[in-house]
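Entry for the shared binder. Reason: the reviewer on the internal report wants the predicted structure included alongside the sequence.
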Amino acid sequence: MICLCAALLFAWVPWAAQAGFHNGNEYLKWPRMLKITYVSGVYDGLEEAFNGETGTPSPGKPALAICMPDSVTAEQMTDVVTKYIHDHPADRHLNGADLVDASLKAAFPCPPR
């Protein structure tokens, strides 16, 4: 599945080459498989950036504010992101990765510490 997702992502090289410049308006035009690949990639990047290889935050480093249940699928995450973008039309011009982050934080918040 990972190989298939990577292959599909690279099939859209013009889009993939500018990942930091995508916004919600562009995201809504993409085919479903590209949306799944993009959301999965952004989430994996966030998780790696905040939690590193160990899966837990390093001392002094903020924790990822998304508490994703183990049973959540890439398709479900994509549905959450797509609904968030549809429900927040005033934010569609914002960076796509920021919209993924905001939507997953809203859907899967961590309990207060």
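Summary line for the report: Residues 2-107 form a domain with the 10k-s Protein, Hypothetical Protein A; Chain A fold (CATH 1.10.890).
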